[in-house]
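ARCHIVE ENTRY
Sequence with per-residue tokens
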Amino acid sequence: MNCLRVHSRRGMPFFILLTTLLLSSCKPVVTFTGQSLLDAGGNEYGQLTWSITGETDDEFQLTGVIIEPDIGAVEPQGSLKVYPAETTTYRLTAFASGPNNTVFNTVRTVTIHIGPRANLSLVKDTALRACLKETGFTHLEQFDVIYCLDRSIRSVAGLEQFALTQSVSLDNNAVANLAPLAQMPMLHTVSLSNNGLTSLDALAASDSIRNIAAYNNSISDPSALAAMPQLLSLALDQNLIADATTLTGLQQLQGLSLARNQITNVTPLGALNGLLALDISRNGVTTGITALKPLTKASVIRSEGNGGVRCVDYANLILALGPVVIFDKCKLF
């Protein structure tokens, strides 16, 4: 790699052009990696490995490399074992200079994790275990998100150990028993679309889950979720919900999506006066549109594909709530 020789252009100061080109052409190539390991006695430590390469002629010089904390100056290439008492992020800085005393500082960081490690042997479903292994993560604190879609996962047993996980996405699988998810104390978002689920009742035992997405299942009665006062959003599009009264206990909800269910009477939904957003589109709704007037906090109410509603009912709802009401057709009489 050679530094570019440049000349000033009309309209661009020389030092600006020079700095721009040097940044793109003379910056050292820095690699910095770390592994969180166990020794034969089960003690945790880390292995840091680094390499800095680049031009070192009269135009470009690597002037120093340091690793912090607690290590200091090191050679441009090397490897080192570290024994932090807790999870520690190490910062490598490569210092380099170019023509006209131009300074380049390249920084890389790696984290050595110390603490509870994930025991993947407790995860019995082979597809789920394989998905978790693919992350390369070793410690529970690394699994803030679990994302395993389209893996033919049938069981989530073993996930209860992931006490620091905040979000789990298991769309397009075949999960039946959701109880382990309710035992994850930091879990706040769950996505379970297209799993063939008939019930979400097991999630009602959670006091942390705030957001549930479960599109395209076979759920007909979500009333058990009323036991979750922290639940803020619920997306149940393309399920088998026909009776809106099964939702009246969810007074805490701010977002509710029920598109493509079997609800014809939406009168009970008027009791959910904390809603900021409601989607009842493509349900075959005929009754109860004016009963949604109490939803004064809503910023959007979607009702497309419900042509059986009288136009006058939509008009009355719009008079009460304004243009937050969205619909595409209605009947005159």
Observations:
- Residues 206 and 321 are 34 Å apart (CA to CA).
- The helical segments are 14-25, 126-134, 179-182, 311-321.
